[in-house]
Protein: SDR family oxidoreductase
Organism: Nocardia aurea
Amino acid sequence: MPTRTALVTGASAGIGASFARHLASQGYDLLLVARRAERLEALAAQLRAEYDVRCAVFAADLSDPAAPAAITDHAAAEGIDIDILVNNAGLSGKTAFAETPWDTLAAEIQLMVTAVTELSHRVVPGMKQRGWGRIVNLSSLAAFSPPGASLLYTGVKSYVLNISQSLDMELKPHGIHVTALCPGFTHSEFHDVMGTRDEANNLPGLLWQQPDDVVREGWQAVMNGKPVCVPGTVNKVVAAAMRPIPTRVGYYLGGRLNPFKDA
C-alpha cells in the first residue's frame, strides 16, 4: 500500500507542528502549510532527517481567498494525494467587533470558516475515491461556552464543531472519519500573537495542556471514528458542564432527523 500523505495547515508552530511531528513519527508523508516559509523549511528538514518521510512545504496565508485552491492545485501538480487533512490554522480577534475594520474580520472568517470548509470540500472527492480519509478540524473548548462579548471566536469554533459532525455523518460510510478537536488552554504561541500572554500566565497550571498531548488524543479520536474530541480530563468536565445535551444524543438525532440522509 502506498504511503498516505497528510496536509497540515498552520504547521509552523504549536499544535500544527506537533501534528506534523506525530504524523511523521507514524510514517505518514506530509505537505506542510503556513505563512512562514523559513519555519516550514526548518521543520520539514528536521522531519525528513529524523523519520525518513517525504515532507513538502507550501507557504500560504489562508486568510487569502485564493489560498485553498492554490494549495490543492500545488498538491495535484506534485502528484500528492491528500489522505489526511488537519485544518489547524487559526487566530482570535483582540479588539471590539464594532472597532475592528471589516477587512480584519473578513480575514478571520476566511481563515477559520471558509478555508476550513473549502479545503475539506476539495480533498473529500479523492478520499472517497480511495475509500479512506481522515479530517481533523481544530475547534475549541470555547465552542461549548456562551458567546464571548465582541468576539467572533466562539461562533467560529461552534461552526467548526457542528460542520465536523455533519461531515462525519455523511462521509463515514465512505471510509472517511471527521473529528472536531476541541482543546482548551494549550501552551503555544497563540497567546503571544493575540497579546494575551500576561492574562494567560495568571491561569492555574491544571488548566493547561502541552500540544503533543492534545495531538495524541485528537489523532486517536479520529482514527477511532469519534466525531468530537475534548482532550484532557479538566476540559472534558468543563465541556460536559456547558453543553445542553450529550454529544452522542445530539449526533444520533442529527443523523436520524436529517432529511437528506438517504439522498
About this structure: Residues 102-130 form the longest helix (29 residues). Residues 12 and 259 are 41 Å apart (CA to CA).
